[in-house]
Design brief:
The structure is a homodimer. With about 425 residues, the first copy, chain A, is of the alpha+beta class. Chain A folds into two domains: about 15-45 and about 80-330, BirA Bifunctional Protein, domain 2, CATH 3.30.930; about 345-435, Rossmann fold (3-Layer(aba) Sandwich), CATH 3.40.50. Chain A is built from 17 helices and 16 strands. Chain A has helices at about 15-35, 45-50, 55-60, 70-75, 85-95, 140-155, 165-175, 185-190, 195-205, 210-220, 230-235, 240-260, 325-330, 355-365, 380-390, 400-405, 425-435; strands at about 35-40, 45, 65, 75-80, 105-110, 125-135, 160-165, 265-270, 280-285, 295-300, 315-320, 345, 370-375, 395, 405-410, 420. Chain A has an eight-stranded mixed sheet with strand order 1-5-6-11-10-9-7-8. Chain A has a five-stranded mixed sheet with strand order 13-12-14-15-16. In chain A, helix 14 links the parallel strand 12 and strand 13 (about 370-375). In chain A, helix 6 (about 140-155) crosses helix 12 and helix 8 crosses helix 9. The longest helix of chain A has 20 residues, at about 15-35. Chain A is elongated, with a radius of gyration of 28 Å. Chains A and B meet through helix 1, strand 1, strand 2, strand 3 and strand 4 of A and helix 1, strand 1, strand 2, strand 3 and strand 4 of B.
Chain lengths: ~425, ~425
């Protein structure tokens, strides 16, 4: 029978799952360490909750669910798969008046977009979002950055550079250059700086009809060897929002450092624009030096969005980690996860008498060490091949001689060392190797 | 704005999430301890993978996803949300020839059914499934039972009774009674024994036209003070499958005991029928004594299903834990989870100078103790109220005096004890309380 998976979706077999779970556990532990509280929402929302929130292009990418019964026969849809975790958060805030502010929540789970599948682009993918609602203090931004750095450090990416800017400074820049009404176009071009370089951006802007004065004025802000925050403050001093935004960013960076983020991982970068319209204050993205990859995390302040259903004013700042990119980078850096759920495979020597092996598996498990028990008694050679293919760190063999003596033969895959030991000593040996 | 969640779906706010995560962590750890390997599949499958697998009633409950583009405009659906985790497993086995048997996998995740929502019945709910593929040895059944008991014991339900029967004995019973062609009807009535009692079942069978001899013959097998397995073996000795099924069940129970399941938690029960057609051998369900609730776990051998797409013969045995029922029971038993992600709330005394509080939060976190940092400096009283509402076990206060002395005031919510300590000592005090 010809059978296939849905396009753009993925199965995760055990080796990938061990890797993903390890990373998700690290992210979750870091969220909790920083006081973010867990939240979960359904995979689907009423369709009217989602439509109109992501622009025309986004609306086309929403997976719609056919209504049941007669409405469905007419082709009507009443539900849709969530497109991100932010609109569901806004819906939760509106529905649950008992939630007190400030509210720090994290949410890790899949979202669905009917994008054209491509390398690294999937129709089902996970987001790991943390958001702090109900406060405008820069401590909230600093907490998001501290969380991101610590989580990435745990995953082996302590060298991440968090590039920080402020939406208000980008707006001030457009005003300062006299192209306030074309801010979007300006930012789209600047956003390509990493890809097409300075000359490419200049050419694009000129092609779009921006004057030479605008382009040179732009580089006066974006470029320089001096402190970029000071430069923005000086050049954009004619704009009313500048001083406040500069002071906020300075405080965000200072508090993030106080929270333990190394200064080498914090970089004010006037060229960071972030695509999403809804940001209203500080914005950031994290990139891994030397990795040929976009940002691994991003976020910022978006004070207008979370209150959209509740009608209340709910200031918010958030951080999102990109799980799929982190998976690719970890593989590139050779950060290998555990190969199997349990470190020990207990083989079965005699199909007529599995009891000695069963007892050994139980003893390992009761000592807190996972043990797989080979479920039937095919030839020992086949069981050892199975252990080798799966990558069990340890193999236990209980033959008639061991069974009689109350011992077990344990074999370490990495060193090929083999020991015939009383069960308690075998457990101690494996435990010691796992602690190394 | 009127905003609502999808019908039959749930939001999980932080207190419920802490509880669910604790239970899911325990289940996952027990799966891994028993050598089950993790697997994940997409939320949706191609619609033809799911339709026709769950009977006519099941087909109606499948959530269908509208195709994108022109086909969608015609009302066509090409995808559907998964209805269980078993059909996706069969699809994975067919698609991934590299999977070697035996294959022990676990899968924990949501499934979706467009059932009419009712108390305790949801349209999105989680399944926690473990299956052992590729072997017919009763060790596989015993491993499923051992896993289930150990996981339930970890959750506070070591008193669970695993009621075990065999599909082949039910079939032999129908043959023995001369109603082989009406086995389904017979089992549906027997399945109601818990609800309607012996007289109710007899009345139902007579109402359906079963003869008095059939009904009395039935009770001869189902009732008695003697060992039920021996009784079934004796009364059903005229059927060819009986001896083998009895021997298998005896071995399943013996090996489960060897693996550590208390004999009080293992009960051969000739009345267990399990609804699903696809079981082919041993079947079981777990019930909590004294709880007014159906089974909290169930499973059995189903040798015909997993190979349905691959065309291969893939014997299989599985166990499924019912997360939602376990949640209800845990609440009834007062098994309380942690209240907050981080055990400490660090308050902010002076909005102009949050630095002392930031430093204390960092010190806790770097010592491996989660600390929430109140993000802004509303009145201390408001912060203490927030801590009380959320249920933080510890509150840290850093006023000007403490800041100068390098100390922190920590307050334990449970005892209202308050200490003014150097930061390192405060950390040690909280750590000691968490270890208790």
């Amino acid at each position: 029978m010809d059978v296939n998976r849905a396009r753009g979706a993925r199965d995760f077999l055990p080796p990938q799952m061990h890797e993903r779970q390890g990373v998700l556990d690290a992210i979750r532990a870091t969220f909790e360490e920083h006081g973010f509280e867990p939240l979960d929402t359904p995979a689907f929302e009423r369709i009217e909750v989602l439509t109109g929130k992501y622009g025309d292009e986004g609306d086309k990418l929403i997976f719609k669910i056919l209504a049941r019964g007669e409405a469905g026969e007419r082709g009507e849809c009443d539900l849709a798969l969530r497109y991100d975790l932010t609109v569901p958060l806004a819906r939760v805030v509106a529905m649950h008046g008992e939630l007190r502010m400030p509210f720090k929540r994290y949410h890790m789970g899949p979202v669905w977009r009917a994008d054209r599948p491509a390398r690294g682009r999937f129709r089902e993918f996970w987001q790991c979002d943390g958001d702090i609602l109900g406060t405008t203090e820069p401590t909230a931004e600093a907490e998001c950055l501290a969380f991101a750095w610590r989580a990435l450090d745990r995953m082996g990416f302590g060298d991440v550079v968090l590039r920080i800017n402020d939406r208000r400074l980008l707006k001030a820049l457009a005003c300062h250059l006299g192209v306030e009404d074309r801010e979007g176009e300006l930012l789209i071009a600047v956003d390509k700086l990493d890809k097409i370089g300075r000359d490419g951006v200049s050419a694009e802007l000129e092609g779009r009809g921006f004057g030479a004065g605008v382009v040179s004025g732009l580089w006066e802000v974006l470029e320089g060897d001096d402190d970029p925050l000071e430069r923005m403050g000086r050049v954009l001093a004619d704009q009313p929002a500048t001083a406040g935004a500069v002071a906020t960013l300075r405080e965000v960076v200072r508090r993030a450092e106080l929270l333990g983020v190394p200064s080498t991982s914090l970089s004010i970068d006037p060229t960071i624009a972030r695509g999403l319209d809804y940001y209203t204050g500080p914005i950031w993205e994290g990139v891994i030096p030397g990795a040929n990859m976009g940002s691994v995390c991003s976020g910022g302040r978006y004070d207008g969005l979370v209150g959209m259903f509740s009608g209340q004013d709910v200031p918010a700042v958030g951080i999102s980690l990109g799980l799929d990119r982190l998976m690719v980078l970890r593989e590139e850096r050779g950060l290998a996860p555990k190969a199997t759920s349990a470190p020990v495979l207990v083989t079965i020597y005699d199909s007529e008498n599995p009891d000695p092996s069963i007892r050994v598996a139980r003893a390992f498990r009761e000592a807190g060490i996972g043990a797989d028990l080979f479920p039937d008694a095919r030839k020992l050679k086949a069981q050892l091949k199975y252990a080798d293919q799966r990558g069990y760190p340890w193999i236990a063999i209980v033959g008639p001689r061991e069974s009689e003596a109350g011992t077990v033969q344990i074999k370490e895959a990495a060193t090929r060392a083999q020991h015939d030991l009383p069960v308690a000593d075998a457990i101690a040996t494996v435990r010691a190797s796992l602690a190394r």
